Every structure is written in C-alpha cells, then in structure tokens.
Amino acid sequence: MAQALIILYSGDPSNLDCLRAIQRHRIPCVLIDRYLEEIDLDYVTSDNPRAAEDLATRLLDLAPAQRYLIVTSEETCSSVRQREQGYQARLHRAGVSPDRISILRMPAGRGLAAESDGYPAIYRALAELDGTFSVLLINSVPLLALSRCLDDSGLWQHCRGIAAFDEHPLFAAPPHVAYVRTVQPLEHIARTAVRLAVAKASGDQTQRRVLLPAEVQVVQFPSAVAPMASAAPAAH
Fold first, then answer.
1. Closest CA to 48 of 32, 64, 61, 28
2. What whole-number distance in Å separates Cα of residue 32 and Cα of residue 49?
3. Closest residue by Cα to residue 217 from 175, 160, 189, 179
C-alpha cells in the first residue's frame, strides 16, 4: 500500500468521490497544480490569481485594445477559476467595462486539445469581436487553434496581443502582436510536493497550503506597424 499520494486533479467531477475516499481513509495526500475548496487536502500550486493579474497587467501595457477575449474552460478546478477571475479583476481595475470583455468557456475535458473541437467555438467568438482585440488564455493548449482561426478569418490584423499560461513550442505570433506568457515553477512545485508527502508519510499532521510565484515573460514585443486591412473574413 502506498504510504502517501501526490495527485494532479484533472478537474473532472467524477474523480471527487475518489478524493473523498482518500480523505476519509486518512491516506496522506498532496495535490499539485490545483486544489479543491470542497475537499480539505494539502496542496502545492502556482499563485494563480497573482499570476493572472500580472499577465493581464503586462498585456495591457503592451497591447491595449478595444475588446478582450478570455478563453477558459468549464472545469471547476481552482486553477481555471482563479486564472479567469484574475484576468477579469485586472481588466476591470484598468477601467475595461464588462461589455468590452468576452468569455469563451470550452467544454470540460474536451475542446482544448483538438482543433476539430476547439476551432469552431474560437472562430465564432472571434467573429463577434469588433475593432482591435487582445486574447487571454488560461493555458497554452488552444494557441494553435486560435492561430489557425486568426489566419483563416483574416483577423490577425486586428489582434494586438496574446497572453497565455505556459508555453507552446509550435506557436508564433505575427511581429505586430505582443505575446506574453507565464512560466510556472513546475520543478519547485514537484520538489515541494515530494517533501510534503514524505513528511506526511512519516506522521506529520500539519496542514500545508503552498502557493509559489510564477514568472511573467514577454516573448515578443509588438512592432510599431500592423498589417494592412484585408478583405472581410470568409464564412465558416
């Protein structure tokens, strides 16, 4: 039998019963990357609210726009909720009115990894934006689908900036578009979780709630000139 568990919760509600059973049987457990407010378990994660606000602040500095699109998920885990709330809080403090903020919530467990699922929803959300816009994503997975939508619709010319948690090695923005991302302390999270799990397996009953800072990186500063406007986007 395992002496302690380190778990990355997927955000699927069907796993809650398993986590409750772990808690009920007093099996030492540490959650990483995200946690659940409804289940009192130890966790180690990035400081998602602060990271989202810092990321939005950098985007506002580099790529102010008329509209903002937040691409998030219907998952209920802490990282999704806190990143979305952090984005919105910073935009509101900057004086961005609610009618200038659009939110696209992709279905939980699908739609973010496959272009065949994510493409139509992202394309429709982009088509509803008027004027210049910037996009904030809770993770980097939809970046390729987003890029393809912007290519196919001809809307890159109106995009001023992209902000996302984590990197995507295949994504690149045009020179006129600012691109910022977070770098999460994944190795530090893993090492801290192992240390806490070993301590709990040895009988330490102290509750641990560890939030670690994430770094914001400017991958690309925007060039001074955006591309010329082109024909209206093709219908999809």
1. 32
2. 16
3. 179
Statement: residue 229 has pLDDT above 80: no
| 70 confidence band (pLDDT: 50, 70, 90) | very high
Does residue 230 surpass a pLDDT of 60? no
Domain hosting residue 35, numbered range:
5-46+184-213
Q: Quick one: 159 and 56 in the same domain?
A: yes
- C-alpha R_g of the chain: 20
Residue whose token pair is 């996302």: 164
Task: Provide the residue type at 107 as one letter.
Answer: P
Pairing of strands 178-183, 215-220: antiparallel
CB neighbour list of residue 215: distance below 8 Å, 6 or more residues apart: 182, 183, 185
Q: Residue 140 in contact with residue 171, Cβ under 8 Å?
A: yes
Please list, in sequence order, all residues whose beta carbon lies within 8 angstroms of the beta carbon of residue 114, skipping any fewer than 6 positions away. Answer: none
Check if the beta carbon of residue 178 is closer than 8 Å to that of residue 162. yes
CB-based contact 76:13 (threshold 8 Å): yes
Total domains, the chain: 2
Distance from C-alpha of 25 to C-alpha of 95, rounded to nearest angstrom? 49
Residue 168 above 70 pLDDT?
yes
Q: Is 165:51 a contact under the CB 8 Å cutoff?
A: yes
